[in-house]
Amino acid sequence: MRQKLIVGNWKMHGSRASVNALIADIRQGIAIVKTTQVAVCPPVIFLGDVEALLKGTPIAWGAQNLCDQPSGAYTGEISADMLREFGCRYVIVGHSERRALYGEGDVLVARKYALAVKSGLIPIFCVGELLAEREAGQTEAVVARQLDAVLNHSGVTALQQGVVAYEPVWAIGTGKTATPEQAQQVHAFIRERVARHDATIGAGLQILYGGSVKAANAAELFRMPDIDGGLIGGASLNAVEFLAICQAAG
Ligand code: PEP
Questions:
Q1: For residue range 84-126, what is the model confidence (pLDDT) as tens digits?
Q2: Residue 176 CB–ligand 1 contact under 6 Å
Q3: Which of 42, 182, 221, 227 has the fewest CB neighbours in a 10 Å radius?
Q4: How far is the CA of 119 from the centre of ligand 1 (A)?
Q5: pTM of the predicted protein model
Q6: Nearest Cα to 120, choosing from 155, 158, 171, 147?
Q7: Catalytic site positions
Q8: Does 3.30.530.20 match the CATH number of domain 5-249?
Q9: Domain locations in the chain?
Q10: CB-based burial of residue 32 (10 Å sphere; 0-12 exposed, 13-18 middle, 19+ buried)?
């Protein structure tokens, strides 16, 4: 039985004060969330504060990115081991904003995935198609290409140590959500593609949906058989909304 997981991606929002306030509000309300795993991914500079505030609570934390190299002369980068040192459990890899704005391609994403696993982090591996690709009937081909990059680089056993997030790019930050049926179709496709390599790993893989999830649409998405929770952007910056999404997953 796969447990539901809700992850907040705070992107480059907030200040030290607002992050501390948001964490305090989530901590205060988390007791109502019973069976769902919950994590937040703040901007990396706030990880020390977040670790201090969340240690000993049921809420995990993670980063939004990592370097594809273990250490060395990579100015401005953050390594997997550094994230581990700050207690991170998760790291997002291959988010569409990094693919589109920072030119991260499938090979780089696959290297980051491998390094995250090697360091004991759980990568949250984002895949998803552009609107033009969906309209051209290429959704499955695009998602397959992105998935295969990791499968070919690290093998299917690496998928056992990660989480996949299906995030149609046209639904991220746009207010347009995939319908539960549209999302379910792609989630089932991802699971089946991994299961072709290893049925047990496919069946156990947590696959999150991301793209304008809010309290009002969360329950109908999370009811679908292959949707195991969500990667939440905008709505995760509001504690009441985020906790309601966590509750909807339970
Ligand atoms: C995201 O950035 O991963 C995301 C899903 O954003 P939003 O929920 O704002 O669409």
A1: 999 999 999 999 999 999 999 999 999 999 999 999 999 999 9
A2: no
A3: 182
A4: 26
A5: 0.97
A6: 158
A7: 95, 167
A8: no
A9: 5-249
A10: exposed
